[in-house]
Specification:
The protein is mostly helical. About 85% of the residues lie in helices and about 0% in strands. It has five helices and no strands.
Length: about 130
């Protein structure tokens, strides 16, 4: 078995990505220490770039369980690590592009990129099903 550190970095990168969008949302909305009393209410009232960054953050958290589950299952089922890494890196790159599309308000392209990003963990799971 190969080193698992690459898999851990994939999971760590995917888990940290939503916080990048959270930072952007708060920065764009002028978040202050006082707003930390109820940050969810603050972000719910945002508009424009801040609102889109907040939505990208929420969607990033929503897609995370499928990705983490697929990667861990692939590792458990001893799918070739190079394949898992390729789909994992593709997922993260596509999620970054997805976030950029969200921030830029490119809705159609965003939807296409979202679909491609979600196909990465789905493909991993389908490969696992095929080998079992």
């Amino acid at each position: 078995m190969h080193s698992i550190s690459g898999i851990i970095y994939l999971i760590l990168g995917a888990c940290l990505l939503p916080y990048v969008f959270t930072f952007i949302a708060k920065k764009a909305a002028g978040f202050t220490a006082r707003d930390n009393q109820n940050p969810r209410a603050f972000l719910a009232r945002t508009e424009g770039l801040a609102s889109r960054a907040h939505a990208a953050q929420q969607n990033s958290f929503e897609s995370l369980p499928l990705f983490v589950g697929a990667v861990l299952m692939a590792e458990y089922m001893v799918i070739p690590q190079s394949f898992t890494m390729t789909l994992g890196i593709a997922y993260i790159v596509l999620r970054i592009i997805y976030g950029i599309c969200y921030l830029a308000n490119w809705a159609a392209l965003r939807s296409i990129i979202w679909t491609l990003s979600m196909l990465c963990p789905v493909c991993l799971l389908l490969i696992i099903i095929k080998i079992t």
